[in-house]
Amino acid sequence: MDKTINKKIWQVLAIIIWAAFFIVAGLIYYVNHYLPHGPSYPTGEYACGFDDRGPCVEEYKEDLRNVNIPNWAKFLRRSEGMLLLFGLGIAGAVISSKSKNQSE
Fold it and tell me: pTM for the full model?
């Protein structure tokens, strides 16, 4: 009895995390394609392709200070949104494997 409850809890947790992963992925797509963008400014750094042998281009960042979008959208547009997405993906994979181990 206790093992079946524990198994169900892990399965529900895995479903919740994967649902959050797909919701955040959809929101990131929406924010990056349908909400207004701010002006870009040069960072002063250069990125080179092909192990620093290829063409080098200056890196630009987007200025989000004066863009009229909600703060959650600014969070998702910056690199923190991708970190959240990757964290949810890793957590989903770990919890899914844990729920499979509980079923055995």
Answer: 0.79
